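Morning F.,

Quick status update on the modeling queue. The single chain you submitted on Monday has been processed. Sequence for confirmation:
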Amino acid sequence: MLTILGRKQRHCDGISRRNFLKIGALGIGAGALTLADVFRAEAGAGTRSPHKAVINIWLNGGPPHHDMWDMKPDAPAEIRGEFKPIATNVPGLRIGETFPKIAAVMDKCAVIRSVVGSVGQHDAYQCMTGWPGNFVAGAPIASSGRPNLGSVAAKLLGPVDPSVPPYVMLEGPNKIPAADLRKNAFKAGFLGSAFAPFEPDGPGMANLKLNGITLEQLADRRRLLASFDCLRQEIDVTGTMKGMDALTEAAMGVLTSSRLLEALDISKEPSKVRERYGSTRFHQYTRERFAAANEQFLVARRLIEAGVRCITMSWGSWDSHQNNFNHIRGLGPQFDQGFSALVEDLHQRGLSRDVTVIAWGEFGRTPRINKDAGRDHWPYVSCALLSGGGMPMGQAIGATNRLGEHVQERPVHFQEVFATLYHNLGINPASTTIKDPSGRPQYLVEHPVIRELL
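Structure tokens below.
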């Protein structure tokens, strides 16, 4: 058994945890289940769809909308802050000055400036499920909560390739708080561990070492298993054993297939490509020192090409109660580099119609700057940045009032965003249901697709 511990991360609410990856008995990221169990569950998930995909990027901590996508240059200084808006390549659409590379690809992006429905808590739950908590119309959906978008896609669509997990979670150097683990923000919720994400839990290949077992040894085990299978299949006249062998073969394929392992190894990319995306940098603006890993953007693109349907990412730490503007001066250009490189790469590789990218946080931040030159939590409105998915790009949806306090035009609920993501995956959110633990069918969301993005 191999156990890998990640670094701690702490929000202003004091919650922290260590994430871990365990590899043993061929079990990866799926609780006590083996990979054969995972594939057995996926085998009954129904027919597969064309390979549409989503990269869901959580800007951990709540990014300040005033300083990014919803600038207020005519507001008083204590509201507008220190940054100036810059023009993008879309006439009339302006964003914050720390994002010049995104400004240059804004014709391939869409900004939502009027996201509503936040519960104002430090967690990724709404950004990963579309729901405010473990309840629907006042009735609890078990303690495990609603499933993540990736888990729903894994259940309804299954894997694109038997040797590649349909759902991958990239956390990077900073780990997700304990509250999110309890709420299963990135997990399978009531769908169960069979549809949990595969978790590489770190950059590159370092955390995929199999406790001294080489790929050649796994191949030898496969051949040994096959020799036993021949004998068992002769005995098992019902054919049941043969079916089990196929599932075990698929599980072994995850570990021995070059597709997944090579996708996670960014050293195989040309140096110019890696440089374009950028690399991990460390930032410190309060007592917290945190890392932001641009390698995740490149790994996400490579995983999509390998056959992954959904990737969730936690990127950076945006909890800027203090030194907000120094915080964004450091973090903004790094996100600008990674996100714009991903957008350009998907477009150049002909993937932009099939792959939807979204970056957003759990809430916005206060219009008024506090005494510590920071912005506090603001659940009344936030923003989202999207690209690809065959959607009409080069537009801004919704608007806030003069001070960026509340929505003035076209509120967009979290669930409308999720309805759109499901639609882009080929899942009809208006008619598709999944059964909760009591056997009752539950709709994926209760809001329609964003009409402006159809």
